[in-house]
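Quick log. Single chain, no ligands specified.
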Amino acid sequence: MAGETPARKLTPIFGTTFADFGYKIDSETRLRQIANDEPFEFNVRQGDKRWNQMHYEALADVVGKYIEDELVATHGFDRVVIPVDANLTEPTSKIFLTPDAFTADRLLLLVAGVGVSVGQWARSIVMNDSINEGSFFNYIVQAKSEGYGIVVLDPNETRDSATEKPIRGSETAVRHTSYVWQHFIRKAKAAGIFIVAHSYGGVCTLALLDKYQDEFMQRVTAIAFTDSVHDVRSLKSRQCKGWLQKNAVNWATSEKSLNIPLSKNNSSGCLKRSAGHPLHAYTTVTAQNCVFKYFSAKSQHLGESEDGSEASESGSGNGSGSSKTASPRSPKRGCGGERVRECAQC
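-> predicted structure:
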């Protein structure tokens, strides 16, 4: 019929469970094929990249739902719908809070990069290596053991998946982060707020500093960036730039040993250290021990002036207890081409 949109090729229906795809999660939280215990295989149909990509995306959605469910069922988070005053007809997003998020003495914010489902650092690691490593789970376990309340943001859910209508307050990743600060973080009683921000999550975090300035500098104790793509030149305030230089570290891709200082003059506006891995997707994984050691050192200065202590002092040393570079575990299918709806490297 004239004027009609040409019919689109239907997406195959693969299933909604791991078993539907012929996969399982093993005891080490690795995705394994039920038939032969082999790892994830992208090329299910040789030479049919489109079909293989759709299969990958569909299985990744199942993994994403599993991670989201585990945040609640295993890790004890509360799932909170936003906007907080949403009506019954408008699209919504969500964040996840530990029950002590508003009462804990220290509060940890986890902010992912572009294009991953909630609770994930890197989909490539989740699919090819380990769900615990590629998701927030390892950070959550350590943070809870050290007494942090935790907030998991979801900066990538900005539109309703069916209607494409923007979600009020979360129209962009930056607006989502600001909304969570306004409606949740401000209510927290924490003496110190700590942030882990990967990739574009660093841009969202810097936007908070730029927008809330004095409030942010008074409340936040330290920021751990992991290969963040932010640029300090986006900050308008000289005071904010000075605060960032003293209270943040960016663990970046490098062939050098873990935690070795890198270039001093960089767009991060803060101390830059080696994450001990050459691949962007793995930087949050390999830097974990250093991040928590840095936060612990910065915690000693809670209650002091907003300038805090020098990051170069409190972030020094090899957080893993070893001077060796983390083994570059290249994912079998890497962090590239076929990942079309996410950070090309994650």
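The two ends are 43 Å apart (CA to CA).
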